[in-house]
UniProtKB/TrEMBL annotation:
PROSITE patterns: PAS. It comes from Streptomyces thermocarboxydovorans. InterPro entries: Bact_Sigma-Reg (IPR052016), GAF (IPR003018), GAF-like_dom_sf (IPR029016), HATPase_C_sf (IPR036890), HATPase_dom (IPR003594), PAS (IPR000014), PAS-like_dom_sf (IPR035965), PAS_fold (IPR013767). This is SpoIIE family protein phosphatase. PANTHER family: STAGE II SPORULATION PROTEIN E (PTHR43156:SF2), STAGE II SPORULATION PROTEIN E-RELATED (PTHR43156). Pfam families: GAF_2, GAF_3, HATPase_c_2, PAS, SpoIIE. Residues 160-190 form the PAS domain. Keywords: Hydrolase.
Length: 875
């Protein structure tokens, strides 16, 4: 028997899907059928999408209420018989196919469903039965044996603590006194942070002070008792305001093992989605994403935002991924938003204007108009309410997932918990796919850079180098590019080359850029946004369009009337434009400008690759001006001998400063290295090869790579150097003797660091203690490459917190000014002034002292390696 009906029609536009979801949700909630709302919304969303998007017709939606359930019918005007008869053994195809997913979902979720045809319409219907439960029950659990019930004390105490807007305790009830041992007068007026033992993750910047600012929060932390012990508690925070508008936070706390008193139960479903049809446990990831899951990152992210939107009945959803340093979030997928404009846009995570609010914790914003800029991605989209949750892997922020709606107040803490549960299920899969994509990109980037380096090193012609730079970036990295060159420090940047993937647009872009001031030649590495081309092109194109319509006025600008860029030019340069400095030998010799068309952004990985390319291109451009082909090839070989980026060592600060002597030299006979050997152990080396040229470079490469290979075989320091000595002697006439300081570093649990060093003919390392005393940390032993039979030994040095170990090459100690030489004693005197400095500050002070010791440019290579054990932080 039909007891109520509701009907609506929807136009064949994308927004109709969200409207249909809202119509079904409002209708069923009005009928009191909240238990089946989620399933009904998901099925309706798929069926209406098939009608208005894939079939391209309007959709007629009919909801019928019966005594035992709800029947929903979706009719369209595309009556093709593509659907198999219900009960047929014919496969419906892949769930990832554009069509057919709605019927698969009907088969999985609905109690009954079917398809009906007329000459003008096709109707798909499904029926959802109501679960049997007592009237008025919101959530209930089964009867359990006593031994399975949550454990609690004889009397459960719920501490009620109220915190004002500054984080100060204003109310403390009797149960709080009993639980934590403080009287109300002892804690009133004190910050809650003085009592809370918050599970802080280093580097996240998230603590209880931030949690108290959220509208709702639920989770675990600890409270320090009056006797100094920490009581683990489970807390539920609610942000409220009084009649005067003053905000405060009400905190309910129970002992952690009694969390069932406060903990919000997970929202149940009418079916057990954690089990597959054959009764086996299903993967929660596959339950949310669907099986099979997309095998590419973009497909996985797009499926994720679509499912998240449908799950919470939102108008839009988005997913951002964190950069490796977790300082920015990059838009990677969205639905219901202008994705072309937003894709790859970046926003900061922590402080600063336009920050992404509460990215590391779940957050619910009831009305974005009250907190403008809290979610920069949604600015200007018409969205009013939003719920965002973090994606975390092993405590590290990897992304953020959000669902938004056009109406305010759509989401509560319950929706945040549901979305967080889904985010936790997919976070690892998303991170795994991201790392896989990143690895593929890096491999491709490596091949790209190798090919680019080969091409740039193969010519010394300036114009050909400029053309190669542009052709390598377009279209691989950008849609268009421009290269500015700077002849000398007194010259202005000159527009030397312009390229666009569409050759017909090159002249228009060149005309535009030639009439506006070039970007400032800032030597700071990395890409910086340059908005001038897009703004000027837009203004000029608008003025041109208005003149063509016989109108006057328009936006004022200072562009020369002769520019006359077309609308196509404005479209070409209307997206994100970035500038990368071309820095060679500590001088800005030009700038590489990359651009995207309207509403497009650069990926962070592309910018990093462009930065690598700009460094190589700058050197090639400078080589074409300064050196012969033999010199250019030699320099490229020498640069390849430098070690990769130094690793970060927990508990030890490390800084390296390297200076090669001679104009244009990037690498000399001195070398250094720092690399991991095994868990908790690192090898370090600093050395000096006798002579210059290819033979010296060969010994440098042999020494650095042999050290890594031998050290990772588990050999001791003396054994490593003895085998390296044999390898150098095996070079025969090409061999060179080598001074080398080699050691192994192991940070200790007590905060110190243990070093085992061997000093083979090299200037002795110096140890700076906290009291300012300086002493050699090793004894001299024979150098390498001279004697066949060496008997070397290693010495153990312990660096206490605050101690510094300084290692240098002889270019530092033999720095001369006339008859004066800095020497070992002069270096020790400078080091005594470095007490309390960081490793970077120590290395910088030593280098400044060496450079100021003489007025002439250094005639020898110099390398400085400083290692310091930091002092523990004082509470």
């Amino acid at each position: 028997m039909i007891t109520a009906r509701a009907a609506a029609s929807f136009e064949p536009v994308g927004r109709s899907v969200a409207s249909a979801r809202s119509f079904v949700r409002d209708t069923l909630q009005g009928w009191g059928f909240s238990d089946i709302v989620d399933d009904a919304v998901v099925l309706t969303s798929e069926l209406v999408t098939n009608a208005v998007v894939h079939a391209g017709t309007s959709a007629d939606l009919l909801c019928l209420r019966g005594e035992d359930g709800v029947r929903i019918e979706v009719a369209d005007r595309y009556p093709e018989r593509e659907i198999p008869v219900q009960g047929s053994a014919v496969s419906m195809g892949s769930p990832d196919r554009e069509g057919g997913r709605g019927l698969q979902l009907c088969a999985a979720l609905a109690g009954r469903w079917g398809v009906e045809y007329t000459p003008t319409h096709k109707t798909v219907w499904f029926q959802l039965d109501l679960p049997e439960r007592p009237v008025g029950t919101r959530a209930a659990g089964p009867s359990l044996p006593a031994d399975l019930l949550p454990l609690a004390d004889g009397r459960i105490r719920v501490a009620v603590v109220q915190i004002d807007r500054t984080g100060t305790i204003t109310s403390w009830n009797e149960d709080a006194e009993e639980l934590f041992g403080y009287k109300a007068e002892q804690v009133t007026g004190k910050p809650l942070t003085d009592l809370a033992a918050w599970p802080h993750t280093p580097g996240t910047g998230t603590g209880i002070a931030e949690a108290l600012q959220l509208s709702r929060w639920e989770g675990s932390y600890g409270i320090r008792n009056a006797d100094g012990r920490v009581t683990p508690v489970y807390a539920s925070h609610l942000r409220v305001r009084d009649t005067a508008g003053e905000p405060s936070t009400v905190c309910l706390l129970v002992r952690d093992h009694e969390r069932a008193v406060l903990q919000t139960p997970l929202r149940g479903t009418t079916t057990d989605t954690s089990r597959s049809s054959d009764g086996q446990n299903a993967d929660p990831f596959e339950v949310f994403i669907g099986s099979p899951a997309p095998d590419d990152l973009d497909g996985l992210l797009q499926r994720t935002v679509e499912r998240a939107r449908d799950m919470l009945d939102g108008d839009a959803a988005f997913l951002l991924l964190a950069t490796d340093d977790e300082t920015e979030l990059e838009v990677r997928a969205s639905t219901g938003l202008p994705s072309a404009r937003q894709r790859f846009a970046r926003v900061p995570v922590e402080a600063g204007p336009g920050r992404y609010g509460s990215a590391r914790m779940p957050a619910v914003h009831d009305d974005l108009t009250a907190v403008p800029g809290a979610v920069p991605l949604l600015n200007g989209t018409g969205m009013r309410s939003v719920v965002t949750v973090p994606l975390k892997v092993e405590g590290r922020l990897t992304g953020s997932l959000g669902v938004a709606a056009e109406a305010p107040g759509r989401y509560s803490n319950e929706e945040a918990l549901r979305l967080q549960f889904a985010a936790d299920r997919i976070a690892l899969a998303v991170e795994s796919a991201r790392l896989g994509e990143l690895e593929r990109l890096r491999r491709g980037s490596l091949s790209f850079l190798v090919e680019a380096s080969d091409l740039l090193a193969g010519t010394l012609d300036r114009d050909q180098t400029l053309a190669l730079m542009a052709q390598m970036t377009v279209p691989t990295l950008a849609t268009w590019c421009a290269v500015y060159t700077i002849a000398d420090q007194a010259s202005e940047p000159y527009l030397s080359y312009v390229l666009h993937e569409d050759e017909e647009l090159i002249d228009g872009i060149k005309s535009l850029l030639s009439k506006i001031p070039p970007p400032d030649p800032v030597p700071t590495p990395g890409a910086r946004v340059w908005s001038a081309p897009g703004e000027v092109a837009h203004q000029a194109a608008l003025r041109t369009s208005m003149r063509s319509l016989g109108l006057s006025g328009g936006p004022s600008n200072h562009v020369t009337p002769g520019i006359g860029p077309t609308l196509a030019t404005a479209q070409a340069v209307g997206g994100e434009t970035v500038v990368l400095p071309l820095v060679a030998r500590n001088r800005v010799i030009g700038m590489l400008t990359l651009g995207k068309p309207t509403d497009e952004h650069f990926r962070q990985e592309i910018l990093e690759l462009a930065e690598d390319l700009s460094r190589r291109a700058a050197l090639a451009l400078d080589n074409a001006r300064l050196y012969s082909e033999r010199t250019a090839i030699s320099q490229s070989l020498q640069r390849s001998l430098l070690p990769p980026e130094l690793p970060q060592i927990d508990g030890v600060e490390v800084e390296v400063i390297y200076r090669a002597a001679g104009e244009g030299n990037e690498v000399g006979g001195d070398f250094y290295d720092l690399f991991p050997i095994s868990d908790g152990a690192y090898g370090f080396a600093i050395g000096d090869v006798c002579g210059t040229g290819p033979n010296a470079a060969a010994v440098t490469g042999l020494a650095r790579h042999a050290l890594r290979l031998l050290a990772r075989e588990g050999l001791s320091g003396p054994a490593v150097l003895e085998r390296l000595n044999s390898a150098i002697l095996d070079e025969g006439a090409r061999s060179r003797f080598l001074t080398l300081l080699y050691g192994e570093l192991r940070p200790q649990e007590d905060g110190s660091a243990e070093l085992k060093v061997v000093c083979a003919g090299h200037p002795l390392p110096l140890r700076l203690r906290q009291d300012g005393t300086v002493e050699p940390a090793a004894e001299p032993q024979p150098l390498l490459g001279v004697l066949e039979d060496l008997e070397l030994y290693e010495e153990t040095v312990t660096l206490d917190p605050g101690d510094v170990l300084l290692c240098v090459t002889d270019g530092v100690t033999e720095r001369r000014e006339g008859n004066r030489m800095l020497g070992d004693d002069g270096l020790a005197d400078v080091l005594t002034t470095c007490t309390g400095l960081t490793a970077g500050a120590v290395a910088a002070r030593i280098m400044r002292a060496v450079e100021r010791f003489a007025s002439d440019a250094p005639s020898d290579d110099m390398a400085i390696l400083a290692m310091r054990v930091p002092e523990p932080h004082q509470d």
